[in-house]
Amino acid sequence: MPKFDESMESMVDTFLFETGELLENLDEILMRAEQAEEISMIEEDDIAEIFRTMHTIKGSAAMMGLQNMSTLAHAMEDMFFIIREKTYVQTDKPALFELLYKSSDALKGELENLSDEDIPLTDFTDLIDKIHGLAAFFKGEGGAQSSPENSLPEDIFADNEPDDMFTYRLRYADSCEMPSARAIVLLRKLGAVAEVCRTIPADLDDDNADASIKAAGLFIKLVTDSRSAVEKVLAAGMNVENFELFTRDMLKAGNAVPAKQEVVIPDGVFLPDDPDELLTYRVIYSESCAMPSARAMVLLRKLGAFAEVCRTVPEDMDADGADEAITKDGLYIKLITDDVNAVERLLDSGINVESALPVKKPAVTDKPAAVTVKEEKKQEEKTDTPAEAVSEKPAEQKKPAAKSQKKDHKEQSLLTVKLEKLDRLLDLVSEIVITESAVVSSPDLRGLETKLDRFNKSSRELKKLTDELQDVVMSLRMVPVSTAFQKMNRVVRDMNNTLKKNATLVFRGEDTEVDKSIVDMLGDPLMHIVRNAVDHGIETPEERAAAGKTNAPTVTLSAGYESNEVVISCKDNGAGMDAAKILAKAKKNGLLTKPESEYTEKEIFNFVVMAGFSTNESVTQYSGRGVGMDVVKQNIEKIGGKLIVSSQLGKGSMFTIRIPLSLSIVDVLSVDIGGSSISIPVATVREAFSCREDSVIVDPEGHEFIYLRDKCLPLIRLGEKLQLETEITDPTKGICIYCREGACEAVLLADRIVCDQQVVVKPFSPLLDGLHLKEAGMAGCSILGDGSITMILDMQSLLGGEAGEEEGNG
Amino acid sequence: MADLNELIENGGQLLTFVAGDEQYGFYILDVADIIEIPELTRIPTAPPFIKGLMNHRGKAVPVMDLRMRLGKPEGEYDDHSCVIVLEINTMQCGLIVDRVSDVERVTPDMIVRSPVDNGLVRGFVMHEDKSRISILDPGVVART
């Protein structure tokens, strides 16, 4: 089931983005606010900001029809209303922030699941109840939710009720703890003798059902042939004190309050000079709808397709009072249309629309007014739980203030652009650069007799401009790493709370700009590394004191450039790692691949990030299961980065991530094989050399090896492997390239080396999936500056698949 | 990719061309471009009917020889040979054909459906005085 109304589909992206940003921002503010010792000491700006954030989320979630998120945000908003207005009598800061973080996480989780239609909307009722409970506690209401008023429900008798329907009113004994449970049993028994149409309260499972039964009694509406049988069942019901047949007269007598006043049509709905063909509709939104004005705007836009909307009351949906006016009197839409049916259908199908009925000028007849009264009653029926109705009031009072603030907030100089558009722009710019060089160095110009001075001057100018254009476009994708860093604040805060290590997180160079895709990718590895630093690196305060460390436990995240790489490191001043211990453990876990004595300190520390290694004896909530760091390493390597570990016992450890500036640009060594251009990623190339005849070894089974400095390396003729025709098959005639990827190594034979260059790797068209090019040893292709195409080798499958291939071929 | 069923049910314009002495047609909405045969880069290990990759507006687009793709013998390319660039679900694919003939408007009653499901040919356009045109399914043709 789609989670969104069709018309909202286009806004999902914007909603996800904006709400995501807001929540990130919220975490930051919460963190700052939490520093305050007392709730009363939190900066007013922060409170206002949190309040505004929740208000915005509430509004946009309601607009998207995400009732659960909207209600949760509403609850948080209410909470902060109390805090802002200082109407609390007692506070509980840890509980408050616990709930706030939980809610923020819940909202974030929900956002992530939104795009997946298989995951249903989460039910936040628990959380919302807790927030309401805490709000009540703050206000000094002792946590108990206000019980329903001791008056009779108004909706016992529906207007269209058949005459043969009986209404019984049951009173349960005061001693009965859970009348709702009793009632359920009773209703089941009644099923045998009567048809139970409705009960009041309607939902006996509801938390408030008990209270309302205790207050007003249980009303059962049923149709039966045998009243005596029904009454017998009722009389036999457990804990039933008494029951009576309830009639409309009794309702009137029992309810001092008159049913409901006539609908007041606000001024300005009917103007004396309205033409006759102008139709007036009154749209009533359900009370659970948080921002009817937003809904109304959408509705009006849709109406535009069938009708000419002349006027609405309230007139301006953006106005501060619009929500209240709509909630109170309903929305009046004045329109002219040819297709009344379509308009009515549309109105009825609007989200959260409770009812939409035509209204005529009061002078004509009174009847429509009566109809609307009925609708109003229906609306009452659906009113939410009393607790929510109570909390609705403060929410309304502060709305105008929050709104005007929101307006200031929106005026920022940032623009959100779809990544697809940006990528298209990037593509276009690189096309322009290639075309430009094709024009300027066109072979046609070479034969020309005339002097090309002016042409050359202009083309130099053009080149300068296109280069600059390329730089600017590239920089569009760059974002500061601080977005990835900020998230760590929260991680450290949560860990400090549970582990009591009081670690502080310090940022350095957080405004270093890197490609957006890198920042997105950094989030997970950084989290693991930071968790690791706090959990394993930083000692407990006692241990620190014992070791004589007086400086504060600190985790430092820093970022910067180094040649063509982004370097991000996470340093802690904790216990550091013991090389001897690590080596011993690596030995125990069977991770050693060479004699113990040959390991350098650097190699030893790198065991820490290998699969199946964890130094901490105890497994904690955050780390210690031996998985995680190896995944981090793999993920970083997947995008061409490196993870380096260094440590000093007693002083701390440092994890460094080095990632190439742009993910898609790779340094390659281009070689020629029978006229085809093939590129080998430089990262895997160890050495290129000319091979002497005596270093070629052929074993009796026909395997060929190259002997290079005490090593016997398998020979792969690229021409043969890639089925390219070339005259050079003798290793001594071509060029040998010693490559290594992971644990696999081999010598590749090519005709000759062309150049080494930087290329942008493009994956092969999905249309070629059937060719299994990756398995054949090709990762993708790249279009070079002169417009020609080169193939980029996939070293993993080329070298790794070697053994299997040989056997298959042999 | 334009829906071929749309053409078969409602009619539309057909780009007709010749490959190995036979007339074929693509629904015009599937065709992105018609270009001269560009420089092609061989894809190692690819079967012979895949002629290689071309640089088409900054994208590396695979190019096939349609004759060979349809199981006909390979032929020489001449001045009339050209590449029809198809757009299939935002992916592009080039097909070398002997020559492009015409753009014809066809009506549903001119089209005879092929009984084969998911075949290369989806239907035929029958002319009384001219030769038969086979309507190709670009999705099936371009898939390797």
Describe the strand arrangement of the main beta sheet of chain A, using strand numbers.
18-22-23-21-20-19
Instruction: Name the helicity range of chain B.
Output: 10-25%
Order of helices and strands of chain B: HEEEEEHEEEEEEH
Biggest interface, residues from each chain: A-B, 31 and 25 residues
- What is the overall silhouette of chain B? globular
CATH fold group of the largest domain in chain A = Heat Shock Protein 90
Total helices of chain B: the number is 3
Report the sheet-strand fraction of chain B.
Answer: over 45%
Largest sheet of chain B: 6 strands, mixed
Q: State the distance separating the first and last CA atoms of chain A.
A: 55 Å
Distance between the termini of chain B: 17 Å
Write down the oligomeric state. heterodimer
Strand-pairing-aware structural class of chain B = mainly beta
Number of beta-strand segments of chain A: 26
CATH architecture of chain B: Beta Barrel
